[in-house]
């Protein structure tokens, strides 16, 4: 059968209209029926009210007490609030916070959270990212404030009373947070443990609270180099951290600087003490190393508490590096916030078992040090081996 050009054109138009009608009839739901049952079957709507009746279960689910959750919600609600639309009711600030905390507490995938809360996958992803950013923006200055001279002195006093280490402003350490290999990143995030990671560098006080955190260094970087390029090192060098003036070590006339302490991954500085070489056979060196190692337990404990509370650290974090940076910052901010606002939080962990965290240590790194740095470390070694230093340890 022969058709003219005009007839063929009309047939083509008719077929296009039929195909468009078919595609339109097969179009997916604007909201999937599963998600439409959120307020009847979603985990938040079915479980939250029951958790309120059991403090222990509430704590296990959200990794914080009811009172702490309520305080956090009160601070964040104005920033988490979304307006209802003609088409649908907005997700409440409390539910948004619950979704984010549950993700951090379990490390479950966004897809798993999506099904349990009856929310779209992209919605969960957006809620987690937005809520984490709001937590950091609103709470960072409150729980990690700029340190004053008096605040530093209080930290040093705690180190002396709790860990028998004088003139100490904090314990420094860094950990590799394991992530899924970012696309097209080559070996940038590939570390000595043959995993991909982002480094969390932290200074911790005597009570396992974070004083300073640096997040975002790529796993391939040398560990001492991460500290050397950090803002902490720069401010320690240029004297803009409000560090107190040198003072005599307790019960002596040995005038020493205020210092931070670290392990052999860090360089020896006048303001940063690291151990003497191990297996030297020198008894005085061993005493110093023992006292420094004992005081450094607070930073290991802090990382242990962080990974026990937020199980997202138990596996590879499957997000892009920028989002992982924000996740790490959020957990550190929440760590301090929870410890500050929960009376029983400080004693709720078995400190003896915290050092085996799921975060990898930084690699030991040698390096040159100034003669002045050696002399400052010598002052602390002499003190720890003096009658005053030994007696303070026996009292401990």
Automatic annotation (TrEMBL):
Record's subcellular location: Nucleus
Every DDE Tnp4 domain range: 172-336
Choose one Gene Ontology CC annotation of this protein and give it.
nucleus
| Assigned keywords, A-Z | Hydrolase, Metal-binding, Nuclease, Nucleus
Q: Does the keyword Hydrolase apply?
A: yes
**Which Pfam family, any one, appears in the UniProt record?**
DDE_Tnp_4
Q: What is its main location?
A: nucleus
What is the required cofactor set for this protein? a divalent metal cation
GO MF annotation terms: hydrolase activity; metal ion binding; nuclease activity
Q: Which domain of life is it from?
A: Eukaryota
Q: Which family does it belong to?
A: Belongs to the HARBI1 family.
Protein name according to UniProt: DDE Tnp4 domain-containing protein
Its lineage opens with:
Eukaryota, Metazoa, Ecdysozoa, Arthropoda, Hexapoda
């Amino acid at each position: 059968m022969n058709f003219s050009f005009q007839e063929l054109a009309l047939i083509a138009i008719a077929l296009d209209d039929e195909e468009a009608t078919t595609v339109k009839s097969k179009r997916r739901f604007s909201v999937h029926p599963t998600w439409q049952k959120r307020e009847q079957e979603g985990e938040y709507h079915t479980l939250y009210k029951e958790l309120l009746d059991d403090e222990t279960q509430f704590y296990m689910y959200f990794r914080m007490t009811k009172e702490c959750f309520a305080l956090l919600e009160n601070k964040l609600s104005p920033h988490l609030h979304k307006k209802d639309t003609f088409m649908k009711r907005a997700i409440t600030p409390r539910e948004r916070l619950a979704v984010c905390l549950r993700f951090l507490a379990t490390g479950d995938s966004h897809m798993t959270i999506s099904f349990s809360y009856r929310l779209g996958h992209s919605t969960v992803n957006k809620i987690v990212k937005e809520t984490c950013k709001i937590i950091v923006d609103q709470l960072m200055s409150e729980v990690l404030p700029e340190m004053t001279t008096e605040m530093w002195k209080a930290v040093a006093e705690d180190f002396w009373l709790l860990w028998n280490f004088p003139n100490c402003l904090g314990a420094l350490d860094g950990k590799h947070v394991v992530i899924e290999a970012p696309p097209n990143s080559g070996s940038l995030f590939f570390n000595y443990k043959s995993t991909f990671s982002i480094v969390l560098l932290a200074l911790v006080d005597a009570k396992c609270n974070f004083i300073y955190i640096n997040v975002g260094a790529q796993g391939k970087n040398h560990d001492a180099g991460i500290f050397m390029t950090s803002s902490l090192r720069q401010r320690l060098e240029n004297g803009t951290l409000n560090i107190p003036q040198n003072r005599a070590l307790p019960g002596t006339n040995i005038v020493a600087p205020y210092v931070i302490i670290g392990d052999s991954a860090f360089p020896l500085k006048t303001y940063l003490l690291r151990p003497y070489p191990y297996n030297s056979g020198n008894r005085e060196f061993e005493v110093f190393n023992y006292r420094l190692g004992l005081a450094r337990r607070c930073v290991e404990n802090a990382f242990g508490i962080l990974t026990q509370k937020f199980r997202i650290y138990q596996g590879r974090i499957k997000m892009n590096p920028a989002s992982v940076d924000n996740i790490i910052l959020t957990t550190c901010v929440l760590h301090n916030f929870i410890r500050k606002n929960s009376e029983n939080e400080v004693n709720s962990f078995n400190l003896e078992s915290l050092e085996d965290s799921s975060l990898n240590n930084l690699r030991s790194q040698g390096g040159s040090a100034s003669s002045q740095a050696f002399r400052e470390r010598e002052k602390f070694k002499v003190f720890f081996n003096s009658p005053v230093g030994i007696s303070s340890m026996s009292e401990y």
